[in-house]
Amino acid sequence: xxxxxxxxxxxxxxxxxxxxxxxxxxxxxxxxxxxxxxxxxxxxxxxxxxxxxxxxxxxxxxxxxxxxxxxxxxxxxxxxxxxxxxxxxxxxxxxxxxxxxxxxxxxxxxxxxxxxxxxxxxxxxxxxxxxxxxxxxxxxxxxxxxxxxxxxxxxxxxxxxxxxxxxxxxxxxxxxxxxxxxxxxxxxxxxxxxxxxxxxxxxxxxxxxxxxxxxxxxxxxxxxxxxxxxxxxxxxxxxxxxxxxxxxxxxxxxxxxxxxxxxxxxxxxxxxxxxxxxxxxxxxxxxxxxxxxxxxxxxxxxxxxxxxxxxxxxxxxxxxxxxxxxxxxxxxxxxxxxxxxxxxxxxxxxxxxxxxxxxxxxxxxxxxxxxxxxxxxxxxxxxxxxxxxxxxxxxxxxxxxxxxxxxxxxxxxxxxxxxxxxxxxxxxxxxxxxxxxxxxxxxxxxxxxxxxxxxxxxxxxxxxxxxxxxxxxxxxxxxxxxxxxxxxxxxxxxxxxxxxxxxxxxxxxxxxxxxxxxxxxxxxxxxxxxxxxxxxxxxxxxxxxxxxxxxxxxxxxxxxxxxxxxxxxxxxxxx
Length: 575
Ligand code: DGT
Ligand code: CA
Ligand code: CA
Ligand code: ZN
What we know:
Strand order of the largest sheet: 11-12-13-14-15-16-17
CATH superfamily of the largest domain: Metal-dependent hydrolases
Bound molecules: 2'-deoxyguanosine-5'-triphosphate, calcium ion, zinc ion
């Protein structure tokens, strides 16, 4: 069985290469692929078992794409994709990650300047060749140069954004877990810790028969190269150059292996020292006293023997978590089951939303939420935003819909857009009509830090603002966030009582874990939100929570774990 994640990976690659081929990411064919991807993302079953006709019944999936999916399922490859891959080698495609370098520009500089790699691009920038091309100019050239610098795209130890690595890891783990005789297949390493970028993927498989797992990995269609193979470990490279290490362990040792391969290395070293202090030995096979095995099957058992609670993977960085857990000063970290609502949430009322209000609210109700803020974009965001009239009509729909969900409080909200000088949409009175607002930066990312800082302070001074959304506006590995004076902004939040959003989208994870830890220390109230634009986005809450844990946030710090009554009081506290 082929996982949906793998199929989505193939479609995403096709979309990217076709955009390059067409010289536009807006081309009709590209959009068709994007619609199909969105449809499959929202499809609950496994796509690989469907006929072409059945696939076509999925929203957004047309006949030709369904045929390509079927071709992939049946043969393990797609002829069109192979052709495009031959035409556009990975080193060239990689350049699409540079902000300011879209398919059109890339096609142009390849044709005119023969640019095939990052080194070619840097050389062309050095000799100021880009600015001579039609439609580019000096500003664009300088912007591209700065992006390369800030994204750290150079160098051999390039790391992969977690949003890219996660579907690959999840897809592979699901497939390995489905092999006969496999008890579990779990992504470990930095991915399990929710690091922002991933050096390589580590998957731990619990099975008695290692050989068939190794075979499955080595012959996996995602493997373009096998870089290591042994009896219990196989390492492959995926097409994008990302390495995956798969290790097979005995099911009775799964806990010890997971603990070891989750790391971090520094956390492991500190744990091992704790074992040594007790006269014991801790390794990837278990916790031992001499020959005697003390614990191995479960991570929690090993922690327990070391007089520690089970620490969530996301805080295993040896940044004081072991000491804090040992002396009882570790905060009571927030967990997913404590979350009572989502506070950054779009429907297709927003131009970029993809599910209806009814679908989005039903999905939230399915998760058992007791409150939910619908935060469509404000009018300042061209195309995506709603006018006053549209907003008021939307409010009626929300109120009406709420009668169907008596157990849930639906809040009429808005995602306000913070202008370059800190201005917000509508006017002060209109803004106060909203039950909840999150204010976010969506443009002017290159202003100096002082300007960005006062921009945010100005926005949070508005009494209608409840939270600041995706603080820096970064896309991990694609767009550096705005520069700002973090301490000043956190102090502003603490004083004003405006909450800091932890955005659970994997390519954002914004505020970062580091900023979150500072926010907790500064007494800032947090909210964890998904920024959902589609019903399939609600699962981001798990990432948001893990990132909050990574920032040492307790449930008490997170407003959307509070009771409905307390939360509703909070929404009105600044008005
Ligand atoms: P990455 O891949 O650079 O994003 O980071 P990790 O943490 O995934 O590191 P990786 O892939 O080198 O190793 C996976 C885990 O295996 C690591 O988190 C801890 C464990 N590990 C690897 N090498 C050592 C080692 O030499 N000593 C100890 N104690 N643990 C190790
Ligand atoms: Ca790793
Ligand atoms: Ca590794
Ligand atoms: Zn949003």
